[in-house]
Please model this.
Amino acid sequence: MSKDYNNPAFKKLLEKLQEESWQLELLISGFAIFGLFTAYDSVVMHFNEAVATGQDYQRVAFTVIRISCIILIFSLLVHVLLRGLWIGALGLRYVSGEIDYKELNYSEKFTRYLKKKVGSFDKYIATLENYCSIIFASSFLLIFYVLAMTCIIITIGFIGNNIIGSDWLPEWLSLWLGIPLMIFIVVGMFLTFIDYITQGFLKRKKWLSKIYFPFYWVFSFITLSFLYRPIVYNFLDNKFGRRFTMLLFPLFIGVAISFSLHYNFSNYFNLEIESNDYVSNRENYENLIDEKSGFIDNVVIQSKVIKENYIKLFVPYSESIEDRVFSFNEGLKPKKDIRGLDSDIIITGNNNNVNRDSLRRAYLSTFNKIYYAKIDTTVVESEFIVSHTKKGTMGFETFLPTDNLSKGKHLLEFKRIGLNKNNDTIYRSLKKIPFWYYPN
Model:
């Protein structure tokens, strides 16, 4: 089929499909909107989990997915709204035909004005058709723009971490190779952005185009533009498309800002304030966490009112905790850090389980030396072990006795030992959780 694109029969088929494409647009938009709304909460949950546990790869991936969902939901809703208006206009045209300005019997002044500003009803329908088709196409084009920006950021991070900051390359080679590459990518990023907002100005000028071409060629691969370049140039080859393309970037910024808006109902308090001795945030009480997600991304106790003779304290795992354990016990730091993406496929069976078990015990021993809990002003003896919640959140769990507590309000404080620049021991408060003790 790709060889027959100049065939008159193929062009006729494309024109027929083009006329009937609105049905596919509505079908795809409907399914996509339903799927996006269904998946969005799950995406946000996994994004929060990645942030809480310090999983950088997952955080980047779910950030891209989350932004893409927001863009698609917004643009496809606008598309469905305008396409519905277009269908309504078509139905009205079947009943009423063109606008009959004589039948309206307005004054000559208003008739001239309306003919100039409102014009033909068929022109209105054609304009709606153009907007609907362009909005539908640009919805998916914006996703590629998001992927392009993500790929550029990943490329900059890769050069900085794996070439300039490399441990396996000689210092002279990492600097001589990494710095020119970094400069090339940063300059190319700005040139590409300038070329985008000026709609190809750098390609029009003869001497500028020669300078810009190497950057353009490299960035066509980095930004994956070879996948969607025909759509971009099809936008730019007509006046209507150029005007709409100029709106894409401010529209993208506007959508991002709109989703960040919220209403402040107090000058002093809001839902994001962390728990302390005078605020109790639901994120720190296991029984108040959303059962649908079930993900724990904060230090929690079982409930706000403690009736049992113990307090269950759970601390979710994060990579920063492991880094801190390594800094206190360098013997635990492996030669090869295997954190990150992994596979369940076992290549070899030479696992020293005995040695690994002893290292795990040393790991937990170090954790218990660094982290501890206080109730009011008293340090409570505790022993954390590794545990999992019902929804699979991994973390450290311990049970604190309440035998010596009086009835009423108390404050649990989760703390850790740290070192300052002079290697002096300091004590940092990580979380304060108020609770009320009323035994059965």
Summary: The first strand starts at residue 300 and ends at 301. Residues 7-258 form one domain. DSSP finds 13 helices and nine strands in the chain.
